[in-house]
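[INFO] parsing input record for Cobalamin biosynthesis protein CobD
[DEBUG] input buffer:
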Amino acid sequence: MSSMRVSGEGLVLGVALDAVLGDPKRWHPVAGFGRVASAAERHVYGDSRARGVVYVAALVGGAGVAGVVLERMSRRPLVHCLVTAGVTWAVLGGTSLGREGLYMARVLERGDVGAARKRLSHLCARDPRGLDARDLSRAVVESVAENTSDASIAPLVWGAVAGIPGLLMYRAVNTLDAMVGYRNPRYERFGWAAARLDDVANWVPARVTGGLVALCSGREAWRVLRRDGAKHPSPNAGRCEAAFAGALGVRLGGVNAYGGRVERRPEMGDGRAPEVRDIRRAVRLSAAVTFAAAAVVWSVR
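[DEBUG] output buffer:
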């Protein structure tokens, strides 16, 4: 049995485990990595790009070494398949993303804007103060769109390309970006390497995500993706959000606030502003895209 076939079957099994179980409730490996990264930051931090490069290289390199060790310890096909499945389950976040989106849908459907504002930080760093139900709906739909790539498609792409090391290194890169990849006084320089490496790691997966959205939903998603995908300031998030905008028939983008900093982002799509009911549609589309990616991996394994 070829290693490519074993890895493919392990990736698909990992998607199934994530769909059924969601994130591990305790001893989550990604949370453990985050604690290690926080401890390392206390020792390495300095207001310079060079220190940030060292920080990222050590942690991502360490994740890669761990992946290589796991690969070598699981040479037998069945063991390798099961280990790949376990690692895939650990690094995927699609089911948890969907659950967060559905929680936001439920509280907004019953008119509890306050609860939705408090919960928004689980999905994005946007300042929730002053956001009404429509603003929150747009924030959730945009976050589900962008994170479909980060949480599901990108790990599968890197797992297909580089096996267990690819899975672990991608999740390390993405986690570090979430921790230090901010444009604020503390991380403007130190977080530069994490942010840039995350852009590189997600360049192909974001475009794969956009293509899969179009495959799952039709021509309008493809049209809006091609027309509006490059408008977003992120080289990757815009591809996902534009495709979702076309698929859902909504208009994304506009004014966003992040800790006192206001960004005016170009609009994507030709439809109406997102409404609460569009959150559930976005979550269903995100799940469909993840399963489509798994089907592609299965077909080419």
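[INFO] Residues 3-300 form one domain.
[INFO] shutting down worker
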